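Reopening: C-alpha cells for the zinc ion complex, inputs below.
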Amino acid sequence: MNEELPILDNHMHLRGNGKGIKAAKEFSKAGGTHIVLVNLPSWTYGVNLTDPSNYKKPFDKCIAMSKEIDKKTDLNTYPVIGVHPAELTKWTEEGKSLEETFELMKKGLNLASEYIKEKKAIALGEIGRPHYPVSKEVMELSHELIRHSFRLANDNGFSVQLHTESMTKEDVIKLSKMINESGLDKSKVIKHFSNPIIDVYTQEGILPSIISKKENLKEAIKKGSRFLMETDYLDDPQRPGAVLGPKNVPKKTNWLLNQKIVNKEDLINIHKTIPEEAYGIKVNL
Ligand SMILES: [Zn+2]
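Re-run output (same inputs, fresh job):
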C-alpha cells in the first residue's frame, strides 16, 4: 500500500438499498481515497417521470449519499449528476411519446445544471447516447441532448461525463467534432467506460476514463498516463457481480505499481493532476 498516494475512482454508483456506504468503506480499506459518485437512472430511485422536477430525487439522493460518506469515513466524495441516456428508451416503453420524454430530459439537464452552478455537484453526467442499438429517431434525440449538455457545460464552466457505446478511433474523432461545434473545451469531456485507445483520446483532447481491468490498464499505459480509472460499480442487489466491485481501483493501482507497469509520477497524474484539471477540484490526502 502506498500511503502518500491519493486513489480516485472516477465513476461509481452507490444506493441506499444496495451496499451503499459499506461499499465505500471497502474501497477505503483497500486504499481508495476519493470517489466521483454518479446518480443512477431516475426509476432506480422509484421515480415515475411526469415532471422535470422529478429529477430532483436522483440528484438529491446522490448528493446525500456523498455527504454521508464524507461524514462517516475518511473519503472525499464528489457528486456528478445528470440524466441517463437510457431514460429515453425507458419512458417511451412506459407509454410516453419520444417528444415528451425528450422535453422532460432536457429540462432535467437544465435542473442538473442549476445544481452544479450552486456547487452541489462537480459535473454533469452521466449523459450521452445508449450503448445498445436504437432507432434513428432515438439516436438523433440523444445527440440533441448531448449537444444541449455541451452548451450548458460551456455556458456555465463545468465538465461532462459522457456515456456511449464502446468507441472506436473513428467514433472518437466524430465526437471531437461535435464538441468543437459546441464551443466546449474538449478536456472538459470525460468519456466514461473508454477503450484503452489513449493515443487517440490524447490526440483529440478528450479525457478517457478506463474500466479498471488488468488488460485494459496494461494496454492504456502503453500509450501514456492521460486517463482516469473507474469501476462503474453499480451497487445493484439484483446483479451483485455486474461490472466491477468497489475495491478494484485501489487494488489495480497497487498491482500496476507492484508489477512496475507504472511509476509513481504516472499514478499522481491519473489520481490527482488529471482529475483536478478535469473537475476543478483539489485531490489531497
Ligand atoms: Zn454508470
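The chain has a mean pLDDT of 96. The chain is about 45% helix and 15% strand. Marking as resolved unless the reporter disagrees.
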